[in-house]
Amino acid sequence: MASWNLPEDVVTEILLLLPVKSLLRCKSVCKSWYTLITKPSFTTAHLNCNAALKRNDCILIKRFLQESNKSVLSILSNEISSDDQVPSTEIIIPHSNHFLQMLGPSNGIACLTDHCDIILCNPSIRDFKVLPAPSFNYPQGLYSSTIGAGFGFDPLSNEYKVIRIAELHEDDESWGYKFHSVKVEIYNLSTNCWREIDAVVPFVWFFPCSELLFNGHFHWWADDDDHGGESMLSFHITTEVFQQIGLPEICAFPDGNERAFLILNESIALLLFNSSEQTSFDIWLMTEYGVAESWTKEFTIGPLVQVERPVLFWKHQLLLEKANGQLVSYDLKSQGLKEYQVYGAQKSFRALVYSESLVPIK
């Protein structure tokens, strides 16, 4: 740096404007650049710079490839067009299977889980961590299985947390499976340990797009034990308090419809649809966060031929998965449908609006 007659603070300001991929290359330029870019203070400053510049300009896509029997991550940046291909660099996910959920993201870190293994990853820097399994001692004869998972960042304690909602059940010789209760466990990345919290929560449902991080809360589709029917269960990442939020009265499970929680226009959107040869999507918005009475039906998309399920709202498009495992998009303005040369196993697509970061998982 000295040979170029540039002060270190000027070099720092220049590097902060670069994307992660360029910074990873810059680490190899010289020792002083490597030292600068790997400093925690630089990582934080770059994260803040991304937030100030609103660099949420990527889509992180997870899909399962049947030919290689592996789940992969791909990052699509900027506006996607019908000519775009998934990048040739596909990040293979360890311990993956067809039904892997993708949660988050927070500061470039996402959480992947098939409700057996739980993995934290920053795909920008190819960093993965398989979390240790909870080691709680349950009463004799009871077994634990994950029915819901969540992930988020607590800015107050500077802590990344994974939430696990576990169902306790017993294997009865005469009746077989027998439900017992629901427990909540939280993993703290800083301690690499799980802890159990005292909370009474309803049964949550594990479906694609039934789990969502929004507004400092994680959300699940859940039973409504007080009023019958369904609800949205929210968990505040900082206070660790649960709250049930009512859904529109039209939701009366089982009604033949599938559900999906997505984010549209900085609000939680509920999509009701019934996968068939021609699928229509009713879009409801919670216009005031946490207020059940604010659910409003905004519009209906479709019917669309051979479109099976929603994946993500991205700017003015709704990304969708076709019955053959192809990614398509519906333009909310032109109401046109575009196909992409992006394929995965049926019902394996997950996607998040994503901002790349240098944040390591440690």
UniProtKB/TrEMBL annotation:
Domain F-box: 1-47
Entry protein name: F-box domain-containing protein
SUPFAM superfamilies: F-box domain
Origin: domain of life: Eukaryota
Pfam families: F-box (PF00646), FBA_1 (PF07734)
InterPro entries: F-box-assoc_dom_typ1 (IPR006527), F-box-assoc_interact_dom (IPR017451), F-box-like_dom_sf (IPR036047), F-box_dom (IPR001810), SCF_F-box_component (IPR050796)
UniProt xrefs under SMART domains: FBOX
Species whose genome carries this gene: Escallonia herrerae
